[in-house]
C-alpha cells in the first residue's frame, strides 16, 4: 500500500496514537497476515520497574552483612522452605510456590535505558540498521494475532519525560509492528471525528461520520485502499471484546480493590512512570481477550536518596521503599493469584525486572546507586517449574556467586513459553539478512523448563 494513500493522523480512523509512526492500521493488519496467524493462546506480561529496583532490599536480602549494606529490612519465610524475601512482601511470600526468583542476572547495562529490558540486547552491542525490535514486535511478526479484532502486542506503558525510560520500538521490523497503545493520551486519539471509543459500536454513526472522508477519498482515488484490511481496522476499533478488556470498570469492584488503584496522571519523581496497580489488572484482561504480549511500566525505582522535591531530607531509599513495596506486593500477588484462579497460569508468563541492580553499600545520601554487575528478576506462570530461586550472589549481593543467568537465556525462556524455538526462528533485517532472536545461541533457562 502506498503511504500517500494514508490519511492524516487526525483523520480517518485516528490511529496515529497506536504507535505506528504514521502507518495506517490496515497496514498493520496486512503485515500481520503476511507473518502468518498462529492459534496459540500462550502469552507474556512484561512489567518494567522503571529506574532499576534494589534487589538486596526486595528478593536477595543479606541480613548478616554490615548495616551499611543490609539496610533496615528483615527477611521473612515464604511458603517454600528455604526461600526468604523482604518482610514488606507478605502476600507474595504466602504464594512463593507460584513464583521464581532469579538472583543472578548478569550482563546488565550501567545507565538508564529501557531497551535491554524490552528486547534482551545490551545497549552497547552492535545492532543492525534500524535497531533491534522489542520483544512484543518480534512475537507479533512471528505469530500474528490470536483474533483479528485484538492486536497481538499491546503496550500499557506511559510515556516518560526521560526518553531512555521508554520502549525502544519495533526497530528494523518497521512501524507496522509497533504495539497498540491505548494508555494515557492515546485514549484521546481513539476517536472517529466526534465519536469516542464508547460509541464506536454504533455503525450508523460511523458511516455518517465517514461520509465526508469517503467523498474526499474518492476524489483522490484512495477508496481503492479500503480493502479487507480496512474492514478489519473498523472491526478493531468497534470490537466490544477489546473495548471491554480496556474498561476495568466492568471488573468486579472486589477484584479492583485486590489490585489497588493509582493516579495515572502522577508520574513518580516527575520523570518516571505512574504508580498504577490497575495496569496489571488491565494486562490480565487483555491477555484474556487474546493479546499475546502486554508490556507495562510501573512507578520509578531510581532511589539515590537525598532531598525530595519539596527540599525535605526524607527522600531516602527506605522512605520510598515503605511507600512502594506494599502496593507492589498487593498488585503482583493479585495478578498471579488471578492467573491461577482463571486457569491461565500455564499459558501466561509474567516477568518483572528493571534495567540493573543497586549498589551493595548505602550511600551518604541514604540511597543505592546503579549496579550493573548483577540484577534480580521475578517470574511466574508460563507452565514453568516455579517455587524456586535460581542463582545466588555473594555476601553483599554485589556479584553472582552461582548460576549466572544471561538476558539471552531469559528471553529464550519467554520465547519458548510462547512456542517459539529460538534455535530455529529468525527475522529478516532491512538488508534481508536473517537475525536470530537472542544473542550467543542462548537456550531457555534449564531450571524452569
Automatic annotation (TrEMBL):
- PROSITE patterns named in the record: TAT
Signal sequence span per UniProt? Answer: none
InterPro entries listed in its UniProt record: Alkaline_phosphatase_core_sf (IPR017850), DUF1501 (IPR010869), TAT_signal (IPR006311)
PANTHER family in UniProt: BLL7424 PROTEIN, DUF1501 DOMAIN-CONTAINING PROTEIN
Name of the molecule in the record: DUF1501 domain-containing protein
The species this protein belongs to is: Telmatocola sphagniphila
> What does the record give as the organism's lineage?
Bacteria, Pseudomonadati, Planctomycetota, Planctomycetia, Gemmatales
Amino acid at each position: 500500500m502506498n503511504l500517500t494513500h494514508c490519511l492524516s493522523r487526525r483523520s480517518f480512523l485516528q490511529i496515529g496514537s497506536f504507535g505506528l509512526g504514521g502507518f495506517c492500521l490496515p497496514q498493520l493488519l496486512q503485515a500481520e497476515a503476511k507473518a502468518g496467524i498462529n492459534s496459540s493462546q500462550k502469552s507474556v506480561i512484561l512489567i518494567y520497574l522503571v529506574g532499576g529496583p534494589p534487589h538486596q532490599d526486595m528478593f536477595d536480602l543479606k541480613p548478616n552483612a554490615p548495616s551499611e549494606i543490609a539496610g533496615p529490612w528483615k527477611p521473612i519465610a515464604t511458603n517454600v522452605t528455604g526461600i526468604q524475601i523482604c518482610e514488606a512482601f507478605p502476600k507474595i511470600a504466602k504464594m512463593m510456590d507460584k513464583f521464581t526468583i532469579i538472583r543472578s542476572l548478569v550482563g546488565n547495562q550501567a545507565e538508564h535505558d529501557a531497551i535491554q529490558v524490552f528486547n534482551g540486547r545490551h545497549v552497547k552491542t552492535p545492532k543492525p540498521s534500524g535497531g533491534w525490535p522489542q520483544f512484543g514486535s518480534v512475537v507479533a511478526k512471528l505469530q500474528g494475532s490470536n483474533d483479528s479484532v485484538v492486536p497481538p502486542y499491546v503496550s500499557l506503558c506511559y510515556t516518560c519525560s526521560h526518553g531512555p525510560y521508554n520502549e525502544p520500538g519495533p526497530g528494523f521490523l518497521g512501524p507496522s509492528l509497533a504495539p497498540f497503545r491505548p494508555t494515557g493520551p492515546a485514549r484521546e486519539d481513539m476517536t472517529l471525528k466526534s465519536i469516542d471509543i464508547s460509541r464506536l459500536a454504533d455503525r450508523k454513526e460511523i458511516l455518517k461520520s465517514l461520509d465526508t472522508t469517503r467523498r474526499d477519498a474518492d476524489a483522490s482515488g484512495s477508496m481503492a485502499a479500503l480493502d479487507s484490511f480496512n474492514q478489519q481496522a473498523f472491526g478493531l476499533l468497534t470490537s466490544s471484546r477489546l473495548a471491554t478488556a480496556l474498561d476495568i470498570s466492568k471488573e468486579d469492584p472486589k477484584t479492583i480493590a485486590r489490585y489497588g488503584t493509582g493516579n495515572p496522571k502522577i508520574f513518580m519523581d516527575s520523570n518516571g512512570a505512574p504508580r498504577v496497580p490497575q495496569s496489571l489488572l488491565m494486562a490480565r484482561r487483555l491477555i484474556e481477550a487474546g493479546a499475546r504480549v502486554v508490556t507495562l511500566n510501573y512507578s520509578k525505582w531510581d532511589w539515590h536518596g537525598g532531598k525530595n522535591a519539596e527540599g525535605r531530607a526524607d527522600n531516602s531509599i527506605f522512605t520510598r521503599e515503605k511507600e512502594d513495596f506494599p502496593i507492589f506486593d498487593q498488585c503482583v500477588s493479585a495478578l498471579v493469584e488471578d492467573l491461577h484462579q482463571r486457569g491461565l497460569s500455564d499459558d501466561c508468563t509474567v516477568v518483572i525486572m528493571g534495567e540493573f541492580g543497586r549498589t551493595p553499600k548505602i550511600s551518604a545520601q541514604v540511597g543505592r546507586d546503579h549496579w550493573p554487575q548483577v540484577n534480580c528478576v521475578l517470574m511466574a506462570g508460563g507452565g514453568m517449574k516455579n517455587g524456586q530461586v535460581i542463582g545466588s550472589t555473594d555476601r553483599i549481593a554485589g556479584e553472582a556467586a552461582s548460576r549466572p543467568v544471561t538476558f539471552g537465556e531469559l528471553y529464550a525462556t519467554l520465547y519458548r513459553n510462547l512456542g517459539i524455538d529460538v534455535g530455529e526462528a529468525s527475522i529478516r533485517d532491512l538488508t534481508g539478512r536473517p537475525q536470530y532472536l537472542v544473542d550467543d545461541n542462548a537456550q531457555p533457562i534449564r531450571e524452569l523448563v
